[in-house]
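ok so for the tutorial part 2 we go from a plain amino acid sequence to predicted structure tokens. step 1 is just haveing the sequence, like this:
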Amino acid sequence: MTRPWPLLQSHPVFDAGIFRVFRDRAQSPRTGQARDFHVVHMVDWLSVLPLTPRGEVVMVRQYRHGSRRDSLELPGGLHDGVAEQPAQGAARELAEETGYATDQPLQMLGVVHPQPALLANRAWIYLARNVNRSAAPRPDAGEDIDVVLLDAAEIGSRVASGEIDNAMTLAALGLARIGGHF
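step 2 — the prediction. this is what the tokens look like for a chain of 182 residues:
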């Protein structure tokens, strides 16, 4: 059975504003040996799976600098943990990126750790039912977004073809599928 590794030291290595990198020294409870790890600390993420009354999934297509290509994904972003609850942040991101909203409470699908070997943050994933276009999208200055409506029946083939390959989107779709939401 695995056990936690006691943290011996933690030192900041780099601060990029949106994230900070730390070098942690931890000790293996099995061998007693100490080892260095780099850990990225950033705010939690939010993702929302919006479904229209007609069963369409509201997605966004945007250019991603890390992969240097367009990405078809669910709306989402960073959680402002001080000013809002995660569900409020998910609704905010949905409205900002797509112009869609719902008058129903968002349903939490789950909380995941995007890459626990390296990242210290969590991602809150929500389902928004009966969303309708209520305003124009208001993307951030660093975002160019196209809103894409997909019939839920198309999702599997888009994943299989590799068109949908964003890990957070795949996690949300998987949680929704497991929960029987589509």
